[in-house]
Amino acid sequence: DGLYVKTSNDATIPRLGLPVSLGATTFTGLVAGQYRIVDDGVGSLDVVAGVRYWSIDARIGYDLPPVVPLPPGVPHAYDHSEGATWVDGMAGAKAVVHLSPRVTVNAHGMLGAGGSRFSSDALVAVGFGLGPSTSLLLGYRHMSSDYRDGAFRLATRLHGPAAGMSIRF
């Protein structure tokens, strides 16, 4: 499982009218195994365990014209980024309920920690069978991580509509 998100925004600081550029890049990937504990024809339930890798970089910058008056010591141009990478152990469960031979309801939930203080991953989706071992998934996903390293703190939440593919082998 992998996810790459890149966001950026050019904004103006209210009341000052100063342009600022903000950006963040996030990559996370999960490598896990699962073991089926229930498979009764109506659905299945698996336990899941693995490791999730996180890499996050955030940037802020501005470039002001030389005619803009600034307090002493404040530069007219600034560009700074901070980032972190860490790995969390993850464990949870995955369930699939068959509504028809080609339509399923899928859900998973995992919790973890390690490099972060706490990490979570949850998904609810409808699966549409494309073949005997492949399904298209459409649903909603929420992921979070609370990472701290000294004074550096990064509370990350990624959530929203999700589309993906499930391949069974």
Number of helices: 0
Based on Cα principal axes, name the global outline. elongated
Main β-sheet, spatial strand arrangement: 1-2-3-4-5-6-7-8
Largest sheet: 8 strands, antiparallel
Instruction: Give Rg in angstroms.
Output: 22 Å
End-to-end gap: 15 Å
Low-confidence stretches: none
Give the rounded overall mean pLDDT: 92
| Beta-strand proportion | over 45%
Helix content percent band: under 10%
Helices and strands: which structural class? Answer: mainly beta
Number of strands: 8
- Elements, N to C (H/E): EEEEEEEE
Describe the structure.
The protein is mainly β and about 170 residues long. Helices cover about 0% and strands about 80% of the residues. An eight-stranded antiparallel β-sheet has the order 1-2-3-4-5-6-7-8, with no helix packed on it. β1 and β2 form a beta hairpin. It is elongated, with a radius of gyration of 22 Å.
Task: Describe how the helices and strands are arranged.
Elements (H helix, E strand, L loop, with lengths): L1 E12 L4 E22 L3 E21 L13 E22 L4 E12 L3 E12 L4 E16 L2 E16 L2
Antiparallel strand pairs: 1-2, 2-3, 3-4, 4-5, 5-6, 6-7, 7-8
